[in-house]
Design a protein that fits this description.
Length: 426
């Protein structure tokens, strides 16, 4: 803010409305001052990083404009007002983080919209409705206006069984008739596709975040990008290589989670192990390696922490619970102790006492060590429930009971999958 006036940047990309917009912003009744006319997006981002501008007026057709660049501007303290052709519904209309949208035939409104569009105030009501914010298909969850619940499956390093549990839990929720989306959000070595026998290299996660970053992700688009492995279970496959984590921009991933809530009753995410947060310079738009994990934990309705039952696994579990409490202190945590076996010599009460010495979880669950059941599931590319009744399947059902509050599991119920029904985005 410059005195009583709002500092404004304009990036019109040569649009015909620019002259009229500048006149409106400089009019006698305007409460704004033009700081710079930026030639392109790079110029706009660099100028905004100085922290002097409060609002950027941007053409919807500005090359490179996406959710990531909007997030960069907002991190520098600059709200974004998009000028678009309402008839063609410009891309900027649906970009996450845009404060207001003004029709290019009515740019005189900028004189009033710009002062109100600072990040100190909420003017989201100025944005046009796209009509695609929710999915109106049948069976998209109980109640068209009830958001889905995000269930994060996390565990420390050492392969404690995060993916096996995430797949098993998602299949259990789907078997109960809950529309469920399983997301492979492990930025280091996701293996959900292998667990379900999906062998091609199409990444549903990358396809979805590309749509989100370009402002084109809605519930229908997410449903098309995910793979429908049965009527109530969709899967968003993960990164084909660990080095492609840089393509998952934070703003796009956050929008993916929001959209997933509108698509399914339950969104189960298999997360990576690391909670480390890389330092960022002011206004930087460089993605965080562990944003998928930390960002999900921060907004999750339920967090399931998986740890091994052996001495090494329990020590890692204890450290992980302490670290997670520091990163996301408000998380509702349920602990799943995996690969429990009598040969370890510990009772469930002893393990429970050890865990509760570090954190008091909402519930604790003990998953038996049944390597033959897990091997059959992996070799067949199906969840463990499909291999018949087992202690592991019953333990997963108990965890689902705790998550849903509606114990409806019936022994012997099977989860039948249709394999490799590909999405449309590569």
């Amino acid at each position: 803010m410059l005195g009583e006036r709002t500092g404004v940047l304009v990036a019109a990309a040569g649009a015909a409305w620019e002259v009229e917009a500048l006149r409106a912003l400089a009019g006698p009744s305007a409460r704004s001052v033009l700081l710079k006319r930026c030639v392109d997006l790079s110029d706009l981002l660099a100028t905004a990083s100085t922290g002097q501008a409060r609002v950027a007026v941007v053409a919807a057709g500005l090359p490179g404009l996406d959710a990531d660049s909007v997030s960069h501007l907002r991190s520098a303290g600059t709200a974004v007002v998009v000028v678009a052709d309402a008839r063609s519904r410009g891309a900027g209309v649906v970009l996450a983080g845009v404060s207001a949208v003004v029709d290019e035939t009515d740019v005189e409104r900028l004189a009033a919209v710009v002062p109100a569009a600072t990040l100190d105030e909420d003017v989201c009501g100025e944005t046009e409705e796209t009509g695609d914010a929710t999915d109106d298909r049948e069976g998209s969850g109980p109640g068209s206006h009830e958001p889905g619940r995000v269930v994060a499956v996390w565990g420390p390093a050492g392969a404690p069984g995060r993916t096996t549990l995430a797949v098993t839990l998602a299949a259990e929720l789907a078997a109960r008739g809950h529309d469920t989306l399983l997301v492979d959000a492990d930025g280091y070595g996701g293996a959900v596709a292998q667990h379900l026998g999906i062998l091609d290299e199409v990444s549903g996660l990358l396809g979805a975040v590309r749509l989100a970053n370009s402002g084109r992700l809605d519930a229908r688009g997410l449903a098309a990008t995910a793979r429908e492995v049965r009527a109530d279970l969709r899967v968003l496959t993960g990164l084909p290589r660990a080095d492609r984590w840089v393509e998952v921009r934070p703003a796009a991933f956050d929008l993916l989670l929001t959209t997933a809530r509108s698509l399914c009753r339950y969104v189960v995410l298999d997360l990576g192990f690391s909670l480390e947060q890389d330092p960022q310079s002011y206004g930087s738009s460089v993605p965080q390696r562990n944003h998928m994990t930390v960002g999900t934990l921060d907004v999750a309705d339920e967090v399931v922490v998986v740890g091994g039952a052996d001495p090494v696994g329990l020590a890692r579990l204890a450290r992980g619970l302490v670290e997670m409490r520091e990163v996301v202190p408000s998380a509702t945590t349920r602990v799943a102790v995996n690969r429990v076996r009598a040969s370890l010599g510990w009772t469930e009460q002893e393990v429970r006492a050890m865990v509760e010495g570090f954190v008091t979880p909402a519930s604790m669950h003990f998953l038996p060590d049944e390597p033959a059941v897990v091997d059959r599931a992996l070799m067949s590319g199906r969840p463990v429930q499909d291999s018949g009744d087992s202690g592991l399947a019953r333990a997963a059902a108990g965890l689902a009971d705790a998550l849903t509050g509606d114990p409806t599991w019936v022994p012997g119920r099977r989860v039948r999958l249709r394999r490799r029904r590909a999405g449309t985005t590569r």
